[in-house]
Design brief:
- The chain is of the alpha/beta class.
- The chain folds into two domains: 355 residues, Alpha-Beta Barrel (TIM Barrel), CATH 3.20.20; 59 residues, no CATH class.
- The protein is built from 19 helices and eight strands.
- The chain has an eight-stranded parallel beta barrel with strand order 1-2-3-4-5-6-7-8, surrounded by six helices.
- Helix 14 links the parallel strand 7 and strand 8.
């Protein structure tokens, strides 16, 4: 192999097999794709050890991708259910799975994913360090944090969230600028607490070059984590968030110097009117690297419906530059999601991603919508169901309220505008009430 990473290959003018797969999926000239990867505008997370991977590209000029979070916790240890979620997510078209397991035999589940799952696999090593070493947080040594990153790379993980932007300076800025909801990132809160208790610098920031060497060896994509993402709309776009983003922009350039692929993680909770500006700030400060957003969640008052608040924000974010949407389920802020929650979260996120692709003018994005509109015009119900993002739900709704006339629905009946327009334009007479 004459290259170390996808970015290294792209910069050397080499077209990899992964690039060819991605170009075919995106209906894009592979040479155009290669140039975008060389610039860091597009990433292809593809750990050399993850042999079951079906590669995908992430970048604002490509179709918007979605990620599904799952994994075990101390209160929910059912590995079989977690893998059922994985299977369902892949069947529903999710391009990435993030294993956020925080209890149990995390390596067993992670290796199962990278041996069998065709989706990109992501992890957060900070969580796993706490589980793996099974000792008080402040007793974890600097080198032990880095060793977990190496272990995840060896296990075949395609991208890792590394919370390296919250260094001592960022932490100082956070403490000086009080927030309504403090730090809500799990990884961010863990490393902040470790820094406060030990008095040491963030090991992921201090030893960033060592992390880059690991990523280069296995071609792991760095997902530069947003420890200071806002956890309420009140905290959006504050000094802590922007300070961290500046650091992430600096680290992006250092990663690119070693041909390591990078994406940037973003908010979080954010009012609608701030989303576009945040996407522009990220592009500027982080030099056009792909942006990965959680939501954004656009209001704080909808527990049980945060898949909807997230989809609203996600559609806007992706329209204006975000490349990768992390789904949010109805269980957000409340509990570990079950199978149904995961399904609802995926559907909401896919709707947001598709709506953004239409708004961005991605070639072919509207073809599916046009086919649905054609089926509706023709009152072809079976075709409509086949084209629906959730065919089962569409069929169930229609079956629950049977119309008198099979070509209409129970809302309009003989008043159906589509039916009547088809007939009148065909030269037929219509009377509506006595039909």
């Amino acid at each position: 192999m004459d290259y170390t990473t996808q970015m290294d290959a792209a910069r050397k003018g080499i077209i990899t097999s992964e690039m060819e797969v991605v170009a075919a999926k995106e209906n894009m000239d592979v040479e155009v794709l290669r140039e975008k990867i060389a610039k860091g505008e597009v990433i292809v997370p593809a750990n050399k050890v993850h042999t079951s991977l079906s590669p995908n590209g992430i970048g604002s000029s490509l179709t918007t991708k979605i990620n599904v979070n799952l994994g075990t916790s101390r209160d929910m240890m059912d590995l079989e259910m977690e893998y059922q979620k994985v299977d369902m997510a892949v069947q529903m078209g999710a391009e990435a799975i993030m294993d956020l397991s925080s209890f149990g035999d995390t390596q067993k589940f992670r290796r199962l994913l990278t041996s069998k799952c065709p989706a990109m696999i992501g992890t957060v090593p900070i969580y796993d360090a706490v589980v793996y070493y099974h000792k008080p947080l402040m007793a974890i040594k600097t080198e032990e944090w880095i060793d977990i990153v190496r272990m995840h790379a060896q296990d075949g993980v395609d991208f890792m969230t590394i919370h390296c932007g919250i260094n001592k300076n960022t932490a100082k800025r956070f403490k000086e600028n009080k927030r309504l909801t403090n730090i809500v990132s799990r990884g961010g809160s863990i490393i902040f607490a470790w820094m406060e208790m030990t008095g040491k610098e963030n090991p992921f920031y201090e030893h960033f070059d060592e992390i880059l060497d690991i990523c280069q060896e296995y071609d792991v994509t760095l997902s530069l984590g947003d420890a200071c993402r806002p956890g309420s709309i009140k905290d959006a776009s504050d000094a802590s968030q922007i300070e961290e983003l500046i650091v992430l922009g600096e680290l992006t350039k250092r990663a690119w110097e070693k041909n390591v692929q990078v994406m940037i993680e973003g908010p979080g909770h954010m009012p609608l009117n701030q989303i576009q500006a945040n996407m522009e700030i990220q592009k500027t400060l982080c030099h056009g690297a792909p942006f990965y957003v959680l939501g954004p969640i656009v209001t704080d008052i909808a527990p049980g419906y945060d898949h909807i608040t997230s989809a609203i924000g996600g559609a806007i974010a992706a329209t204006y530059g975000a490349s990768f949407l992390c789904y949010v389920t109805p269980a957000e802020h409340l509990r570990l999601p079950d199978i149904d929650d995961v399904k609802e979260g995926i559907i909401a996120s896919k709707i947001a991603a598709h709506a953004a692709d239409i708004a961005k003018g991605i070639p072919g994005a509207m073809d599916h919508d046009n086919a649905m509109s054609e089926a509706r015009k023709n009152l072809d119900w079976d075709k409509m169901f086949d084209l629906a993002i959730n065919p089962d739900k569409a069929r169930a709704y229609r079956a629950s309220s049977k119309p008198e006339k099979e070509d209409t629905c129970s809302m309009c009946g003989n008043f159906c505008a589509v039916k009547n327009m088809n007939r009148i334009l065909n030269g037929e007479d219509i009377s509506i009430f006595d039909e």
